[in-house]
Amino acid sequence: MDERTLLCENYGMSSQTTNHLRTLIDAREICKNYGQTTALYNLSFRLKQGEILGLLGPNGAGKTTAIDIILGLLTPTSGEVRVLGKVPSRHRHSIASRINFCSGDSDLPANLKVCENLRIFARLYGVKHVEKKISALLKTFEIDHLGNRVAGALSSGEKTRLNLAKSLINDPVLLILDEPTSSLDPDMADKVRKIIKDVQVEKEMGILYTSHNMAEVEHLCDRAMFIHKGKKIVEGTPEEIRRHCSTSSLEEAFIKMVRTP
Amino acid sequence: MTDSLRRISTMFLRYLYLHKRSLPRTLELVFWPVTELLVWGFLTIYVQTMVEDSVSQLVVFLINAMIFWDILYRSQQGVTISIMEEIWHQNLMNLLVSPLRLWEWLMATFLYGMLKSLVITLILTVIAILLYHFNMVTSLGFALIPLAANLLLFGWALGVFTSAILLRWGYAAEALIWGIPFLVQPLSAIYYPLSVLPNWIQPISRCLPSTYVFEGMRAVLNKGIVPYAHYFAAFALNAVFFLVGAVFFNWLFKSALSSGRLVRLGMD
Ligand SMILES: Nc1ncnc2c1ncn2[C@@H]1O[C@H](COP(=O)(O)OP(=O)(O)OP(=O)(O)O)[C@@H](O)[C@H]1O
Ligand SMILES: [Mg+2]
Questions:
Q1: Where exactly are the structural domains of chain B?
Q2: Ligand 1: which residue has its CA nearest to atom 18?
């Protein structure tokens, strides 16, 4: 058997110990075409509760496309994805309160204050103790001094932290993060990784995580999946992927996979 | 149901927040209708003096029509500007991923549009009383309620159509926010009776609920009759517009989901 497929099938490996946990995302052979362009081809993967799965790949690989499909904002051309047991593009509302996301592509209204923004989303998600939750999140992300500032006045790193605070406002079971640390300074990026890890462990959250920072993925993710031109190339623990590519770091593995025709 | 109400009120408050710190936003709301009323009002007074009292009702017709037009316009704007606000601020994905349902969101924009209409109508009514001695409330009496309600409803229905287009075509369709009402304006027989329009346009005008509102308004002001047939036609047509609007919205939303335009609104 080809080593690649072996690794792909191995993705059950790290979940052997977590078999009793529920599957949060179950993607089966999803394809997405835009006319002649194939953005995703036969992508299958699973994400279980309490697990962080890194979604890696070069620019244009199809990561955001996969995320949009999981969020129910894009319908796949073929294949099926189930999120918390439901098809997101059809039953978005029955699962929305248990999911959240943070992406560099979206922002909170720049003309509302930080606390107003969080209050709105807390109320949309039906959060119980709104003010308590908001002040706790502001403190966690070290933006408690910015509560009364309009979101448009924040630096991009501060904005990112506000977006992250919003993404945790409903204590989601499934969290989707599209390059959440790209605008953070090294110190803050490190802190944010710790926060994410802490919350994830505490709430047994499942996280789908995209990042171009391989060191971060190695540090944070239980498993990673590498996609290129819409296809899955390899999947496994960071350690397995390194071994598969015979490299000493995930970064080298990344470069090797992208440059191998 | 209580969840829905909570989300609707949250979004309604979200749009009110916008006025809290933004003076230009609030001034803009008042500025255009007031200047328009001043120009129209004084113009009609001038025209009236020129043609003596043969058209003594002119000022009444025009000013009432102008205030009515603004009810329709503001109600449509309340919906579309709110939707566009989320697109401008790249907040669309956050909302669509949250438990907020599309109809709840639209409902909040309806309420916001209604509030805008109410505030403007009140201001314009007071100005008309002070400057032109025209009191819309006493002139129309009870008829004011069904007529104004139909304008509000039609504004919402047009808002649903425009919003669907905005969610599908994004920034490229921005001009329609202002364009659609002005397409409806000449067809609605606002400042002139339906009979003035060319024969081939009249059937089109008869398909718009607004036409019956303005015809009804003139029937009340002119002859003092209660235009039940006009009320009925306007309500019935509004129901049709809402139904078609909902289908249209759903259809374009679905197509935006599959073409990927919903998540990349700058493509057209
Ligand atoms: N609506 C669309 N129409 C046509 N092509 C599209 C559309 N959306 C995405 N694509 C194409 O699909 C491919 C995947 O895009 P996607 O945004 O998923 O990449 P990505 O992995 O997130 O990249 P990055 O790391 O740069 O964020 C790209 O080649 C892109 O050009
Ligand atoms: Mg991307």
A1: 2-267
A2: A62
Give the closest ligand to the alpha carbon of residue A226: 1
Dig out the tokens for B245 from the structure. 């609007």
* Coil/strand/helix, residue A223: strand
DSSP result, A3-42:
HHHHHHHGGGGGGGGGTTSPEEEEEEEEEEEETTEEEEEE
Environment class of A203 (CB within 10 Å of its CB; exposed 0-12, middle 13-18, buried 19+) = middle
Chain B interface disruption, residue of A124, A167, A173, most B CBs within 10 A: A124
Residue A75 at interface with chain B, using a CB cutoff of 8 Å: yes
SS3 content of chain B, % helix, strand, coil (to 5): 85, 0, 15
Pocket test for ligand 1, best of A36, A37, A38, A208 (most atoms within 8 A of CB): A37
Percent of chain B at pLDDT above 90? 63
- As for the ipTM of the complex, it is 0.89
A126 to B99: CB separation less than 8 angstroms, yes or no = yes
* B87 touching A (Cβ < 8 Å): no
Q: Rounded to an integer, what distance in angstroms lies between the CA atom of residue A22 and that of residue A99?
A: 15
| B183 touches B211 (CB < 8 A) | no
CA of residue A100 to ligand 2 center, whole Å: 17
Say if B243 is an interface residue toward chain A (CB within 8 Å). Answer: no
Instruction: Provide the 10 A C-beta neighbour count for residue A251.
Output: 16
Interface test with B, best of A74, A98, A164 (most B CBs within 10 A): A74
Predicted TM-score (pTM) of the model is 0.90
The pLDDT averaged over each successive group of 10 residues in chain A (261 residues) is 41 47 93 93 95 94 95 95 94 93 89 95 96 96 94 92 95 94 87 91 94 90 94 93 90 88 73
Please give the domain boundaries of chain A with CATH numbers for all domains.
3-11+49-69+93-259 (3.40.50.300)
Where b means 16+ CB within 10 Å and e means fewer, B226-236 reads ebeebbebbbe
Pairing of strands A174-178, A206-210: parallel
* B94 contact A CB<8A: yes
Six token digits for residue B86: 């989320």
User: Lowest-confidence range among B6-15, B33-42, B154-163?
Assistant: B33-42
- Which residues, at least 6 apart from B266, have a Cβ–Cβ distance to it below 8 Å? B170, B171
